[in-house]
Amino acid sequence: MFLKRLTDILVSSLALLGLSPIMLAAIVAIMWDSPGPAIFRQKRVGKHGEFFEIYKFRTMRQGTPNLPTDQMQKLPSPITRVGKFLRKTSIDELPQLINVLKGEMSLVGPRPALYNQTDLTAKRKAAGVLAFPPGITGWAQINGRDELPDDIKVTLDTWYCDNWNYWLDWKIMFSTVSTVVSKRGAV
């Protein structure tokens, strides 16, 4: 786990530096497209079930309810024009590199549930998944992302936690690039 944390610090620091032009362009585009702050903060469930604020680029209009992505599909789309692009390319996730530097997240781990996703959190707690830090990407993300029902997410998260090793994290990171480029499962 020491090597995992060291990798998190080094890779997220380098990524923040290298991706800063893209992040700056995203900030300008968000502010041009719709009123409100460029960075969106949301309460999520972290390691051991403790809450933290996740950082993302804002992709929705202000005042949108805090619902999981799959439940948002039942409502009129609150996603902005720029937000659609940011989500499809996963650029909206880049501010989470700050969460990684702060130690609230890891580059790889189970995606952090929303504070109000109590069923998912309870299933993860029962399976021991909450013992791991949440990640920007994870085993479930490269195997379906938002398309997966909670039970399958928990099964995939449990498999990751039971089989975790340093090289599995690297495999997931490289597979994430392929998943993001193909836009598979992005909502």
Task: Characterize the structure shown.
- This protein is mainly α.
- The chain has one domain.
- The chain is 49% helix and 11% strand.
- The chain has a two-stranded antiparallel sheet with strand order 1-2. A two-stranded parallel ribbon has the order 3-4.
- β1 and β2 form a beta hairpin.
- α6 packs parallel to α7.
- The protein is globular and about 45 Å long.
- It starts with a helix and ends in a 5-residue tail after the last helix.
Index terms:
mainly alpha, two-stranded parallel sheet, 11% strand
Structural class: mainly alpha
Q: CA-to-CA gap between the ends?
A: 32 Å
Number of strands: 4
- Beta-strand portion reads 5-15%
Radius of gyration: 16 Å
What pattern of helices and strands is seen along the backbone? HHEEHHHEHEHH
- Mean pLDDT over all positions: 90
Spans where pLDDT lies below 50 across 5 or more residues: none
Largest sheet data: 2 strands, antiparallel
Count of DSSP helices? 8
Query: Judging from the principal axes of the Cα atoms, what is the shape?
Result: globular
Give the strand line-up of the largest sheet.
Answer: 1-2
| Count of folded domains | 1
Q: What share of residues is helical?
A: 40-55%
